[in-house]
């Protein structure tokens, strides 16, 4: 049925057209090209356009909307012709650029009538008018050389690691990349052009800067648009209005000035500050930023939803913040649900990086200690080991001191220019870091910096990487003897382990699950893995050499793969501790401390002595590891903590196991938590307390593990309340015991010997290890240098003899 248009509607339509015409006459709107288009499809496209603008929170001015609404009611041919013109006039003041696609499918662009005004730190929405004489239907995007990312991601190449500079962004180029461009092709818009002779598209622009800036906008339809004459490129001068400096007021659970992780989104879910335009101390691959009390964030006027937290031991709280013309502040009061330090346990992540993977490698080769301190402190870690490795090794090694970095050193450290390095890159890093330090030092109430950071080495991207990546902690010297570059290092791991121990360091295997994944998710299982990657591979041989390897690491990959080799070697009497790690930002770039260890100490670790005590406690003392969402504290066997005294039963008998256990689940399962709970064990997140939730309850199981098997089980309510537990186990032979909430937390083992005999818990485990040596050797020998082959072969032969002897003990 035809829609009747009243005299009032036509008056509004006519007045709207007249008003738009008057603006054009007075030079406020540029005259734009006209084209003929069928009214019905054009009207449908216009309705979608208006819906999309409303969904973005950027509707047209009310007079323009009224004129369009009136025009859309046209129901006769003369009215429709006038209506198309009225809609074009109403949209003209929002058009930033006109795109013309001629019948030969060549692009040309011209300036529209929209004012070139942007807002610092925020997005502005514009229209693109597309006159499509070719009737083509490609995806239309707008791009700009000023819209490139400030940094770039590493290729994570293990070969050719010396070349990490191709494509680096220097200071001048980083400064020039001030613009963000997003072409809106999501519903209700169509993903591509419809082929209609005339339609409008939406582009959004973000400014990092304030003041006048020029950008070149280019229409991109997926073919060679940049023909002679640069007809598809349009230089535009923008005026960028200053954003508001929104101050943060952050207090911890004790009311002290603190740091928090802040995730800031607008009503459309867009993240602020824009990730691609961030410089230190903010990282482009993280949606959140870290702010100390008194620091600020730049936000344009508007409404925001802000999440604040500080790692898995804190609640994540949400608040609405409206930024207006007056003073605005983000007020944060952090809340903990558990503080392990109250029970004498201090957290650490033994494997994080300041370069490579998701870290940009420019303007510097990674980031500086100030940034890594902020990352660790922002996740409430007491200790973090920053490991220099292949990408950026030559640059990052300047921050290695052989000491734990106290706050005074960390906040005053500066990048040092070395011969051959990009001085522009060093300058921009130093300037950004200086600004951060200055804000902290001149704050009215400077926050305490609680995290201890030490730089060491991960042997990754080195010739021995194929045998497994090594974590070297407490080094005095990070350069292997008689080497000039990382390609000169040994091609297998045992020589590196011995060198590390010679200087008093400790060494272990990183991200142990790599190369150890099988079709079985049972723990333990007897399937022989391929040993074909960079996890705890050579470990199967190294562990048979007394004192050669100090620990094994995980919590960043599949727990059944990480811990299967650990369980089997424990069953063979090798009581190697396990360390929680993140491998940030490689296996995860969410945050540091996603996997972490908790070590029992008499006080918070500080300085070199505190770092050394924490490491000693990890290797020999009471400790546990996991995702930080559950905790297994004060694990005792017959009242003794791990490492206190040797536990030796003269005859088989019963032992008592006690602990203080706490976990926290949301009271009610949500769609998101159920997705984690029911996810495949091969999918992320691998370690998460939600995987331990029993059905729809708020309960999780606590298991007593004896020689890899469940010997007791209790169910606790995961409401964040510490609960004492007690279980007993019958010990018939020398055994190792541990507690776990799988896959969220696990203690390091306590060994109970019977009549002084070593642990020989399982012939199957000894045979698994023996077969594993052969498989590992066949994988690794192919990449060991000829001059190192004899020593490596003997090393593996020794492991074969050790496991053969163990198997024989069961005969």
TrEMBL record:
<protein>
    <submittedName>
        <fullName>CehA/McbA family metallohydrolase</fullName>
    </submittedName>
</protein>
